[in-house]
Amino acid sequence: MPRIMRLLFGLILLTALACNLPVSTLRATPDLIGTHVAQTLTQYALQPTPVPSATPQPTQILPLLTATPTMEPSPTPSAESSGDPRLQLGDPIYTETLDNGRSFGLEGKVYEDENTLIRVQNGAMILTSKYATGYHGWRTGGRKLQDGYVEGLFRTGNCAGQDTYGLIVRSPDFIRGYWFTITCDGHYGFGYWDGEKYINLLERRDDQQVIKTGPDQTNRLGVWLEGNTFRLYVNGVRLDEINDSQFTAEGYSGAVIAAHNTPGFTVYLDELSYWNLP
């Protein structure tokens, strides 16, 4: 064969081989697919849902979305009905002095999430709302009580406007329960968290000026629980009374906080006391 023909034939053969190189021998086995899926899910993994623990944990809530009721003047109580329960009932059956956080699941521990910091230190449970966004954080524990009088002694730091704090009663499960709250500009409210949303039962202005407003104040918040009747006291003066039957069994008590005006709003619960009814 002439040399030129041999060269031409060689080029044709190489071209044919180049167009038929072996394909990959990698096959799509179940193990391979599973590995790929796992890697993909890892890249887009969400944080796992936390498993509830046996100790009480605070719950963070989005700003309350319930309609704000009309601020009505509070009724003026009679001298008899406004008597300080502390004087009527004598010594409490128990006072939680918060020398440690054992009954609130905070002994040697600090609770912190992106919105709220709660710890027990120097004889007080200290609740801090990090941002002025209206998020509510709370902690419950102590002793269970059904009917009786519960009172919390609260101190504030820097405090203004609608910054909110208060007392929780009849919490059946550390999450749900009634809230009696006051604001740093002298309003008070009562309602309950049902586990998914807040039901506002009462919201009024303190026309008696019983609430000590502004920063660096101390207020005693008390709730008289008797069946479906709730009497609300601040500094020994009865502000209001309301009836509701959402939670009738015994429950825990605690504290709630929400900053609306002051980032880093901090409240100190110094004592939580309990009385039996006569």
Give a written overview of the molecule.
The longest helix has 16 residues, at 3-18. Strands 2, 3, 4, 5, 7, 12, 13, 14 and 16 form a nine-stranded antiparallel beta sheet that branches. A seven-stranded mixed beta sheet has the order 1-11-10-9-8-15-6, with no helix packed on it. The chain is mainly β and 278 residues long. A hairpin with a 2-residue loop joins strand 13 and strand 14. It is globular and about 40 Å long. The protein has three helices and 16 strands. It has one domain (78-275): Exo-inulinase, domain 1 (Jelly Rolls, Sandwich). Mean pLDDT is 79; it is low at 2-57 and 59-82.
Task: Itemize the secondary structure elements and their pairings.
Blueprint: H1 3-18, H2 30-43, E1 72-73, H3 85-89, E2 94-96, E3 110-112, E4 116-121, E5 124-129, E6 137-145, E7 148-156, E8 164-171, E9 177-183, E10 187-193, E11 198-205, E12 218-226, E13 229-234, E14 237-243, E15 251-258, E16 265-275
Parallel strand pairs: 1-11
Antiparallel strand pairs: 2-16, 3-4, 4-5, 5-16, 6-15, 7-12, 7-16, 8-9, 8-15, 9-10, 10-11, 12-13, 13-14
